[in-house]
Write a structure and sequence with these properties.
The longest helix has 51 residues. The protein is globular, with a radius of gyration of 21 Å. It has 15 helices and two strands. Helix 8 runs antiparallel to helix 14. Strands 1-2 form a two-stranded antiparallel ribbon. The protein has two domains: 191 residues, Growth Hormone, Chain: A (Up-down Bundle); 184 residues, Growth Hormone, Chain: A (Up-down Bundle), CATH 1.20.1250.20. By secondary structure, it is mainly alpha-helical.
């Protein structure tokens, strides 16, 4: 057990620096993808735009688990600073190339591949940092703030890219994105992490393959973390496709128009943000494992029911309720996982979660679309809601998860 100093988040400068750096990074990520798409559209046709947007996802998915191994072996701080520096340099170099020349599609393809590789290093490393920033009693606050940052960052990034594009074209959009990554880097350099306890130091004679296998074995045998990771994967498969593309297809099928779909997604996001703020203020939640299971079950049912609501108003109301319980579920899940994961395995566990979100779940998007085409939106929403309920079943079946709590001793595994 390693003693981690615990200071309330709002008074902990170290945590606040990490949080602001993470915010800048999320906004930069969202702006980058918009800028990349617009830049590709300027020099190529629709098919090539799709190629550029998709090609960066391949190395990110393939290398994500390796990124977790690297974060645990060399320390998340070194990896996150190095990867953020590369991101800033590559984006600013692309901005300069676009400003002073007219490069072809090859530049954007190269940029997308490099960015995907670096993302595979950055995502597990930044996710592994909170348990070494603060005590276990503050993890729920930190993870709830992280949820808020992710939601707000993905909202703020595209308009920033659009504004920059309007002022100076793709070069300006990439320059703004590079500036965000640079500011994030400067803050991350000032972040300090608690050292690993001596018994958790990585073995000097271990191999990357051995470390990866150790991480998989750890997940299989850790009684709280393993079921929560599997539960999280199933819930992401069940919830993300309906809200990412399903709402668009549902709105078209029902004649609600683009604004109707936007209102449904806005209601869900508002609910998530509201309960995330509540968890930040509250700071602790008794019987966390039990309530995680209950809220995941309710949120899953809500996602499925959105697709069969007879009118837009009811769909918005159900989405709001689903968002409220999803925000609670997400905050509890992340805090429980990090509080029960040994510090030496935080990067590998974070990489599995990231792979679930950006590597496995997007594969379900085409399947969702095909099912909507064959069955209609309502039955497809219900099916995916049931898949998410399987996640709740997995975590509820685990005695360790049902009885897991966030103890508030100032220690971390």
């Amino acid at each position: 057990m390693a003693l981690i100093p615990s200071t309330p988040v709002h008074r902990d400068g170290n945590v606040l620096r990490w949080l602001i750096a993470y915010t800048l990074s999320v906004v930069g990520d969202a702006a980058y993808f918009v800028a990349l798409g617009w830049a590709a559209q300027k020099v190529a046709g629709p098919a090539q735009v799709g190629l550029v947007m998709a090609i960066g996802a391949i190395p990110r998915a393939i290398l994500m688990l390796g990124g977790g191994v690297i974060a645990d072996r060399f320390g998340p701080r070194l990896v996150v600073i190095s990867s953020d520096a590369v991101r800033a340099a590559v984006i600013l170099a692309a901005a300069a190339a676009l400003a002073f020349s007219t490069p072809g599609l090859w530049l954007l393809i190269t940029l997308a591949i490099v960015f995907g590789v670096v993302d595979a290093l950055f995502m597990p490393a930044v996710g592994a940092m909170p348990p070494r920033l603060t005590g276990r009693d503050q993890l729920m606050r930190v993870q709830s703030l992280r949820n808020l940052v992710q939601r707000s960052g993905h909202i703020a990034g595209p308009p920033l890219a659009g504004l920059s594009m309007g002022l100076g074209g793709p070069a300006a959009a990439f320059a703004a994105t590079g500036a965000l990554f640079t500011l994030s880097l400067l803050l991350l350099v000032a972040v300090r992490l608690a050292p690993l306890p001596s018994e958790e130091q990585p073995a000097t004679d271990s191999t990357a393959r051995g470390d990866l296998i150790d991480g998989i074995v750890y997940l299989r045998h850790e009684p709280v973390v393993g079921p929560l990771v599997l539960s999280g994967l199933l819930s992401m498969i069940g919830c993300i496709p309906p809200m990412a593309i399903g709402v668009i297809l549902l709105a078209e099928e029902r004649g609600w128009g683009p604004s109707g779909g936007a209102w449904v997604n806005a209601a869900l996001s508002a609910g998530v943000c509201a309960t995330s703020l509540m968890l930040v203020v509250r700071g602790r939640f008794p019987r966390a494992g039990h309530w995680h299971n209950v809220t995941l079950l309710v949120a899953s049912a809500g996602i499925g029911l959105i697709g069969i609501m007879p009118n837009l108003g009811l769909a918005i109301a159900v989405a709001l309720v689903s968002g409220l319980v999803s925000g609670l579920c997400g905050g509890l899940s992340m805090a429980l996982m990090q509080a029960n994961t040994a510090l030496a395995f935080q990067g590998r566990v974070a990489s599995v979660q990231a792979l679930s979100a950006v590597g496995i779940t997007p594969v379900m998007f085409p399947l969702f679309g095909l099912l909507v085409e064959g069955w209609g939106a309502g039955p497809t929403f219900l099916l995916f809601g049931c898949i998410s309920m399987l996640g709740a079943t997995v975590s509820t079946a685990s005695h360790a998860v049902r009885h897991a709590d966030l103890d508030f001793a100032k220690t971390a595994h």
